[in-house]
Structures are given as C-alpha cells and as structure tokens.
Amino acid sequence: MINIFITGGSGYLGSSIIYHLNKSGKYRLTSFSRSKPKAPLQNIKYICGDILNKKSLLSAMKGFEIVIHLAGGGGEGKCLSKPIENTQINLIGVNNIVEVAKYCGIKNIIFASSIYVYTSYANADLPIDEKMNRNPDSFYGTLKYLGEEIIKNSGLNFIIFRFSNIYGSINDIEMPMGAIGHFLKAIEKNENIRIFGKGRNIIDYVHIKDVIKVFELTLNEKFKNKFYNIAGNEPISLRDLAKLIIEIANQVGVRYKKNIKYLELSDKNFSDLWLSIKKVKNDLGWSPKINLKTGVKNHIDHIINNSQK
Question: What is the pLDDT of residues 202-215, one digit of tens each?
C-alpha cells in the first residue's frame, strides 16, 4: 500500500478524494486538517492539526511516500474575508509542509493550484496552456502563484494541478458556493438567480469525479515536476449556465418560477477564461468524462434526494 498524507482532508476536495481512494483499498490515507469531517470514514486516520504549527506536522508526517497538499483553497472570497490568516496558510503553511516533508524523507508532493495563477480579468489567448506566463491579478491567484514557487524550488518531486472551477457531489459531501452552487441554491429557495453584469463572460467547470480520477492516475505515475491544467473542456457563459441549470431543474420537476436577474456592473470587469487540457491528456491519458449537463443534473438529483430523507 502507498502511504499518503493529505492536508485539508476535511474540505470539499480532500473529503472527496479520501472517499474515493479509500474505496479502492490501494492506499493508506491520513487526513491532516483543522477539524474532522462531518462523516468520518473507517480505515482513515484523521489528525486535527494546523499546517502553521511545524511541531504538529513533525509528529504527523513520518512514514509517508506522498503528500497531497490541499489546505488553503476556497477561492477569492474566502481569502479576502481573512487576508492575514489566508496569507499565512498559503505561504508559511506551504513552506512548513515542504520543510517537514524533506526532514521526514518524503520525496513526492501533489499541490492543488488554480486557474487564477494565470490571470482573472485581463485578456488572454484562449484556451490557456501551461506555457503561458503566470500573471495573477487577484489575491487568491497571487497566493497560489507564490505557493507554486515554493513547491517548484523545494527540491521535492512535484506535480502541480491548476484547476478550473470544480463542482459536483460525491457521497453527500457539500459542494462549495461557486457560480453553480449559488445558482442551485437560488433554485432550491425559489429565488431569482443573480448575475453581475450581463453574464456574457465565458468560464470553465470540471466535475469533482473527473478531478478525483486525475489524482488517482497521478499516484501511479513517476513524479516528474510537471504542471497540468485540469478543466472540463466545455466553456460556457454565466448566462447560458444559468439557463441550462433552470432548464434541467424544470425537467426533473423542480418547477422553478423565478428569473435571472442581471445586476448592474460593467462586463469590462470580467473576461473569458478557460484552460487547455492537451498536456494532461497527452501525458496521463486524462480527459473529463462527465459533461456539464450530466454533472448539473446529477447534482440536482442529489439535492432532491437529500431533501426527501
């Protein structure tokens, strides 16, 4: 069995990865997070700790072959809500993980980065590939960019994933509130879907099950210091996304009676942004299997089933 140490194991991405890898029976998994998940799994060792506490990491990280570092996600809104804390987590925390991994003889690390290390609002040639210069213009993107630099210069063997917007459910694990989450919540409450501007900017989404698959593929590969874009390869405008979600909701009997409400804001504040996945497809044979329509329908079905429990 491969021994894997997962930071942020109680979050959305971490819990989803642990749930899937645990079912395979091929890995011995340890979750290191500030809190335990709502529904802890058998066979998983859960350690409550803080990546800012190096002593806590030193006592926890011995005997592993791979670190999957997921702590420090959450996007722009979460980072701006507690800027000092999130700066510490994404910089000091990453550096602590690297130093303790090297001290404990761990040689391999997978780091969860973001599409926003490239840019967020500036015009760019699309789709963006891994050769594009990173030029983040958001707080979250800058923190992930600096985290990548720490990993890249650490001396560890690394794989860095730059994710587009992740969505979807697995085993009742709650999805974070990105655009899809906000739209679905509005439909659930029968409220207007709100979009800033005219919703013409095009972005990309990738389903959590496809994300999990690329992690699993990576665990079976040699770590060759690679950067990979991970995306759904199905870019869509926000207004078309909202219309798609409403259409699917009505098809499954939700009977949504409200409308899309466009809030006044210049579309110049937003730009199109999606990723090329050619490199990960060539290197690892990965491509997304769940299209957006199927993924959204599955998630709406999941919400309906949970409401009936």
Answer: 989 999 999 999 99
This model's pTM is above 0.85: yes
pLDDT of 306 higher than 60: yes
> Domain residue spans in the chain?
2-167+206-233+274-289
- Say whether pLDDT at 126 is over 70: yes
Within 10 Å of residue 129's Cβ, how many Cβ atoms?
15
Residues forming beta bridges with residue 202, ordered by sequence position: 237
Residue type for position 276: S
Mean pLDDT for the stretch of residues 125-133: 91
Measured between alpha carbons, how far is 161 from 73 in angstroms, rounded to an integer? Answer: 13
String of DSSP letters for the chain? -EEEEEETTTSHHHHHHHHHHHHHT-EEEEEEESS--SSPPTT-EEEE--TT-HHHHHHH-TT-SEEEE-TT-SHHHHHHHSHHHHHIIIIIHHHHHHHHHHHTT--EEEEEEEGGGT-SSS---SSB-TTSPP---SHHHHHHHHHHHHHHTSSSEEEEEEE-EEE--STTPPPP-SHHHHHHHHHHTT--EEEETTS--EE-EEEHHHHHHHHHHHHTS----EEEEE--S--EEHHHHHHHHHHHHHHTT------EEEES--GGG---B-B--HHHHHHH-----S-HHHHHHHHHHHHHHHHT-
User: Tokens 């919703």 — which residue?
Assistant: 199
pLDDT score at 86? 92
Parallel/antiparallel/unpaired status of strands 236-237 and 202-203: antiparallel
pLDDT band at 145; cut points 50, 70, 90:
very high
**Assigned CATH class of 2-167+206-233+274-289:** alpha beta
Residue 271 has pLDDT above 90, yes or no: no
Residue 20's pLDDT band (cuts 50, 70, 90): very high
Residue 27 bridge partners (DSSP): 2
